[in-house]
Design brief:
The complex is a heterodimer of chains A (about 200) and B (about 650). By secondary structure, chain A is of the alpha/beta class. Chain A contains 5 helices and 9 strands; from the N terminus they run E-E-H-E-E-E-H-E-H-E-H-E-H-E. The longest helix of chain A is centred in the middle third of the chain and has 17 residues. Chain B has about 650 residues and is an alpha/beta fold. Chain B has a 5-stranded parallel beta sheet, sandwiched between helices. In chain B, strands 7-8-9-6-10 form a 5-stranded parallel beta sheet, with helices on both faces. In chain B, helix 7 packs across helix 9 and helix 22 packs across helix 24. Chain B is elongated, with a radius of gyration of 35 Å. Classes of the chains: A alpha/beta (about 200), B alpha/beta (about 650). Chains A and B meet through strand 4 and helix 5 of A and helix 11 and helix 12 of B.
Chain lengths: ~200, ~650
């Protein structure tokens, strides 16, 4: 996937929000969507079932305008978290420049988090992506829930963040941590510009 | 209208939005009347059209003392025209305008509804273009979008090059600001200029206005300008464009609604800082160079490869070498054009990786002058019907194309008239062209032309030059070789040329109505050399070939020709492809008039016309039997390619 095109002066990043079902991936995108001026965002495409579960994926294009002469765009995607949508997840992950792994902080969702993270690693490996160098951040969502229902950040870190990537506590429904996460992942992916991830039109 | 002396190329800042327009304008200024005529530049207001148009006039006049340039707006032209009409001096008006070497017309959009002016302009444009004079126009929209303008004038306006100028990008704006700031005391902080360049101005005039505002503020309040008060000074508080280092906060986080835009603005500011520190400067420079050279028509593959390198090469050296190669190619091309105008814009002069090929081409042109006629592209091996009667020759042709100069050198194609010798000769030429460099000289000529050039050169005492010219060919394909019989001098020269080319394995192909041993009155030494390669004979087409040829010629007949008709046509013997073509033309015409081809109708029509009529004078009988003489006009009309011309000559 090309990140920067020097010939057309365009920077395009595809960022995929990955994680188990109901972890809050779509909520992240909805919060971003609500905070972006109308002229900077595309139509948020959300294919959801009647009970508001993501069926296929969400897609939110963001136009950050001209930065250093480069027309800069972010494309935010979510994958469906449910186990049985494995094919769609692979499809959405294809060509991703970065991943935000949204984990559900609830204790009872611990296994789903681990399983989803394992699934992410498998899918990245299938695309010959070296996860050790691939831009990724973790987001521990639903930190607003009562503390007896959720794991602590250090417990989640120990279980999920064995690579030591940036991790953010979040309450995506109300916006806490959403932009911090997006800023971090954008920074990671954009700093790769000088590392040679380029296309030349 | 007097040209503004400040509007010159050297102070016109070039960026991605105007690069093509500037390249075109420079080309026009350097060679007025020769490239892009007319040049039509359009853009929204305030983006530099007038500057560019004026720069063309300035440069053209600088390079050519005494050069007459007229720069007017359409309104002024209309006024001038009306004055001339009212004073009864239309002819002097026309004469005056015709005398200008370059006419630059601004605000062309105001031609709307000006019928008389449009007519006069159309006439003037025609006259100027006929006499090689340059026309440059500027408008706020492309020609096709100017309402109520005569279609012929629109077509004329669009007939050269139409280019637009877009809104300036960051770099262009920064370049303009630096130009404006140059020499100001005290100097303006570079960060301030950067920040101003990042503001979304609709056009360059707004940008200049902002700069003037900054200057005014500086003169009143001293140099106290910083990112924090910049937007206030520029009166841009209402806008939402981030300025580097000072993201615009529309609220300060109290309630959710006020915090929303600030969150996104902070994010964009953060991303901006990351991008600014991450984009590779050397890649930007190479990309700029690619865009500039590509706009001037040069192939930039070498720069594109450099862009893919993992780390920065010696960019200065690379770009300087590239520029030097382009300049060298330009000088080669200029000389080539003086020797052979047809080589203007040849691809070899636009590829810095082919300098050696360009030099080779030029040295050949220096010796040989105008290039030789090449093969006619319409004759290909794909549309040569192959059958028993010509299979050997067709295979030999393929072989020559596959390994030029090594297989069957020379190849002599012989056979009676109309069996496809010329077609095959040109088809071989086209095969050779595919396999050779595009600067290769493939001479595909008739022996008559060879002899004529020789005679002319001998008369003018330029025999040596003639010999040198013919020795530059990379492949020699000579048609109608039989006409060389009895021409001693031509045979001697051909003999020496043959030896020179054969010794360098350059392909030699000949077409003749007789095989080499049958060529009486041709020197034995030449005959033996011709016979030493491959002699491939073409016979009159066999039945299967005849059927295929009929099927091809009648492929467009609707409804399609029935098999029994094709069989009937193929059954009748024909001595040549040409005869089949003649007959097929008649069948085609019959099908068009009858709507449907039936064997019975066809049989009576064809046989009736082709059989000699009773009582016809002797001599006419023979002519009537030849389908060519049945309907001369149609045959020639339908055969507009080389075979048709050949027939016309015979006639």
């Amino acid at each position: 996937m090309s990140i920067v095109n020097y010939a057309t002066r365009e920077i395009t990043c595809k960022i995929v929000y990955y994680g188990p079902g109901r972890a809050g991936k779509t909520s992240n995108l909805q919060y971003v969507y609500g905070r972006v001026p109308g002229d900077r965002r595309g139509r948020m495409l959300s294919l959801a079932t009647q009970n508001e579960r993501t069926l296929f994926f969400d897609f939110l294009p963001l136009d950050l305008g001209s930065i250093s002469g480069f027309s800069t765009r972010l494309q935010l995607y979510t994958v469906p978290g449910q186990i049985y949508y494995a094919t769609t997840r692979k499809l959405v992950l294809n060509g991703a420049d970065a991943v935000v792994f949204v984990a559900d902080s609830q204790t009872r969702q611990f296994d789903e988090n681990v399983e989803s993270l394992r699934d992410l690693h498998e899918n990245l490996a299938a695309q010959d992506i070296d996860v050790r160098t691939f831009p990724m951040v973790l987001q521990y969502n639903k930190r607003d829930l009562p503390s007896d229902l959720i794991l602590t950040e250090s417990e989640l870190d120990e279980a999920l963040n064995f690579r030591g990537v940036p991790a953010f506590a979040a309450d995506a429904l109300h916006g806490r941590g959403v932009f911090e996460t997006l800023r971090s992942i954008s920074g990671l992916v954009l700093r790769r510009l000088s590392a040679g991830s380029v296309a030349h039109g | 209208m007097i040209l503004d002396g400040r509007f010159r190329f050297d102070n016109y800042v070039v960026g991605s939005a105007n690069r093509l327009a500037v390249a075109a304008a420079r080309a026009v200024a350097e060679s007025p009347g020769q490239v892009y005529n007319p040049l039509f530049i359009y853009s929204a207001s305030g983006l530099g059209k007038t500057h560019l148009v004026s720069a063309i006039a300035h440069q053209a006049r600088e390079q050519r003392p005494g050069y007459g340039a007229a720069y007017v707006t359409v309104d002024e032209f209309v006024e001038d025209l009306h004055d001339a009409v009212s004073a009864g001096e239309l002819d002097p008006f026309k004469q005056r305008w015709r005398e200008h070497d370059i006419v630059l017309l601004d605000d062309v959009q105001f031609l709307t509804g000006q019928r008389e002016t449009q007519t006069e302009l159309l006439r003037l444009f025609n006259q100027l273009q006929r006499s090689g004079k340059q026309i440059v126009m500027a408008s706020d929209r492309p020609p096709g979008e100017i309402p109520d303008v005569d279609a012929r004038l629109v077509s004329r306006l669009s007939g050269g090059l139409v280019v637009d100028i877009g809104e300036p990008d960051f770099e262009t704006k920064l370049g303009i600001l630096r130009n404006l700031a140059d020499g100001r005391e005290p100097p303006i902080d570079a960060e301030i200029l950067d920040a101003v360049a990042k503001v979304d101005f609709a056009n360059v005039r707004e940008l200049q206005g902002a700069f003037n505002r900054l200057e005014a503020y500086r003169s009143l309040h001293g140099g106290n300008i910083h990112a924090g008060n910049l937007r206030d000074i520029l009166g841009l508080r209402a806008r939402n464009t981030p300025v580097s280092g000072a993201p615009v906060r529309e609220g300060d986080g109290g309630n959710g609604a006020r915090r929303e835009p600030a969150e996104f603005a902070d994010f964009v500011a953060d991303v901006s800082r990351t991008v600014e520190t991450s984009v590779a400067e050397w890649k930007l420079r190479i990309t700029e160079a690619i865009a500039t050279w590509a706009a001037e028509g040069y192939r930039t593959a070498v720069l594109e490869r450099a862009l893919k390198l993992p780390r920065s090469p010696d960019v200065d050296g690379l770009l300087a070498t590239f520029a030097a190669a382009c300049a060298h190619l330009g000088s080669l091309e200029r000389e080539a054009i003086t020797l052979a105008p047809g080589f203007a814009n040849h691809s070899v002069f636009r590829d810095p990786e082919r300098v050696a090929a360009a030099e080779g081409l030029l040295s050949r042109l220096r010796v040989g002058g105008e290039p030789f006629p090449g093969p006619d592209a319409s004759f290909t091996l794909a549309n040569f019907e192959v059958g028993v009667s010509n299979e050997l020759a067709a295979r030999a042709a393929e072989s020559v194309g596959a390994e030029p100069g090594r297989h069957f050198n020379p190849l002599v194609i012989c056979g009676p008239g109309g069996t496809g010798k010329t077609h095959l000769l040109h088809a071989i030429g086209n095969l050779l062209r595919e396999g050779m460099d595009d600067t290769a000289s493939i001479a595909c000529v008739s022996a008559n032309q060879f002899i004529e050039e020789l005679v002319e050169a001998a008369q003018q005492g330029e025999l040596e030059r003639w010999r040198a010219r013919w020795r530059t060919v990379d492949a020699l394909l000579l048609d109608d070789l039989d006409v060389i019989a009895g021409t001693e001098r031509a045979q001697t020269e051909l003999f020496h040329l043959f030896n020179a080319l054969a010794s360098e394995n350059r392909p030699l192909v000949f077409a003749s109505d007789r095989s080499p041993p049958e060529l009486d009155q041709v020197e034995p030494r030449l005959r033996s050399r011709l016979a030493a390669g491959l002699v491939a004979a073409l016979s009159p087409p066999d039945r299967a070939t005849r059927r295929s040829i009929y099927a091809r010629f009648l492929a467009d007949v609707k409804p399609s020709v029935p098999d029994d008709v094709l069989d009937y046509l193929a059954d009748s013997a024909s001595s040549s492809v040409r005869e089949i073509q003649g007959r097929a033309s008649r069948v085609f015409a019959l099908a068009r008039s009858a709507g449907r081809l039936e064997l019975a109708t066809l049989r009576s029509e064809l046989d009736g016309h082709l059989l000699p009529r009773a009582g016809a004078p002797e001599g006419l009988v023979d002519r009537a039997a030849d389908p060519f003489f049945v309907d001369n006009e149609r045959v020639i009309w339908d055969w507009h390619e080389i075979p048709g011309r050949a027939i016309e000559e015979i006639r």
